[in-house]
Amino acid sequence: MTRKASGTPGPDGHDDLQRNLTNRHIQLIAIGGAIGTGLFMGSGKTISLAGPSIIFVYMAIGVMLFFVMRAMGELLLSNLQYKSFIDFSADLLGPWAGFFTGWTYWFCWIVTGIADVIAISAYAQFWWPDLPQWAPAIACVLVLLGLNLLTVKLFGETEFWFAMIKIVAIVGLIATGLYMVVGGFVSPAGRAASLSNLWNDGGMFPNGLLGFFAGFQIAVFAFVGIELVGTTAAEAKDPERTLPRAINSIPVRIIVFYVLALIAIMAVTPWRDVVPDKSPFVELFVLAGLPAAAGVINFVVLTSAASSANSGVFSTSRMLYGLALKGDAPKAFYRLSPRSVPSRGLLFSCICLLLGAFLMWVVPDLVTAFTLVTTVSAILFMFVWSLILLSYMVYRHQRAALHAASRFKMPGGVAMCVACLAFFAGILLLLTLKDDTRQALVVTPLWFVLLAVAYLFVRRRVAAVSKLSQG
To answer: Cα separation of 218 and 40, whole Å?
Structure first.
C-alpha cells in the first residue's frame, strides 16, 4: 500500500487523505488528547480514594504512556506509508492484528463518544433544565458531523480551540491556587491554603497502598485519547517534524496539566474536604470568590466532552477508512468525498453515537451502565496500547536496519516495552478489586470473541474472492 500525494486519484477514482493538518493543529490535538474530561470531573473521586498520592498515580500512568507514544512515533516514522497504528500492527504482527486493532479502537471511541454525548446532555441541563435530555445529544452529533464533513483542516481548527479552552481553564486554576497559597487564603471552615496540606493529614499515602492502587482504576480513563496523534499521521503536513514535537512534549503536559493542577487543588482544599461527586475545579474557584465559577467550569467541561466526541468522530472514520483499505471493513468506507473526507465512515460512526441519545430516551438513569462501559473502554484502550508495544518489539527484531537509521528512537527499547506491558497487566489485576470494574473485566472478552468470529468470516470471504479471481 503506497502513500499517494495529496489529491492524487486512488482506486475507484477517489482521492487519498490530504495532508492539511499544520503543526499547531497537531500540537493542540495532542494536548487535547492528553487532557481528558476525567481530569475535570473524575479527579474528585481519585483524590478521595488515594489522597495526595494521586499525584504519583497520574505521573506513573503518564510516564508509561509517554514510552508507548515514543514507540508509536518511531514506528510511524520508520515507514511513511503507515497511515496509523492499524498499518504497522498489520505489517509487523499480521493481518489479524490490524483487524483487531482497528475495530477495537473504533469501538473504544464509539463507547467513549456515547458517554460524551450523554455527558454533554447532562451539562446542558445546567442552562436549559426543561430541555429533553436527548435533544442536546442529537444536536451535538449533527454539529460534529457537519464540521467533520467539510474538511480535515476544519476538524483541526475546531480541536485547536477546544484544547485552548481546556488549557486556559487549567492554567487559570493553577494560577488561582498559587495566588491563594501565597496570599494566605483561609477557607470559611478555617483551613489555610498551604502546600503542607499535601502531607500534614496522614502523609502522602493516607489510605495506604490499597488507596493508592485504587486511584489507578479511574485515573487511567483520564488518559484515553493520548494516542490520537497517531491517527493524524496521514493528514499531517510534515509528520517527521510535527509528530516528534507533539510526542516529546507529553511529559511537560502531564506535569503542568495533571500534577500542578492536582497540587493546586489539594493545597487549597485539603484532600479530606474534596467531595468525590463534585468537580474540585468548581470548588476551588468558588472558594476564590468567583461567582460565575459553576457556569464557567460547566462550559469548560461541556467543551471538553465535545472535544472528546469530536476526536472520536474523526478517529473512528479514519479507522474505518484504514480497515476498508485492507478489506477488513466494507469497501464503501474506502470512498472519500470530493473534499477528501471519509464521509461514509463519518456517517456510520455518527449513527452509532446517536445510540447515546436513544439510550437516554429509553433508560434515563445511565450512571451505573456508563461506569461499566467507560471501564470497558479503558481496558480496550490498554489492549490497543499493548499492541503498539508488541509491534515495536517485532520491529526491533525484524527491522534492525530501520531502527539503526531512525532519528526518533524509543528510549529504553524492548526492555521498556516489557516494563509497560507489565504495568498494564498490573492495572488489569487492580480492576479485580472492585465490583463495578470487575464486571467490566468479565464482560470485555465478549468483544474479542465477537471479533474473532468476524475475522474468520472476513478471511474466508477474502480467500473466496481471491480464488475466484485466480480462476
So the answer is: 12
The answer for 238, left when phi > 0, alpha when psi is -120 to 50, beta otherwise, is: beta
Complete domains list, the chain, with CATH:
11-470 (1.20.1740.10)
Regarding predicted confidence, which is higher, 347 or 463? 347
Q: How confident is the model at residue 343 (pLDDT cuts 50, 70, 90)?
A: confident
What residues pair up with 72 in beta bridges, in sequence order?
Answer: none
Q: Is the pTM here over 0.85, yes or no?
A: no
**Is the predicted pLDDT of residue 21 greater than 80, yes or no?**
no
Q: 15 pairs with which residues across the strands? A: 9
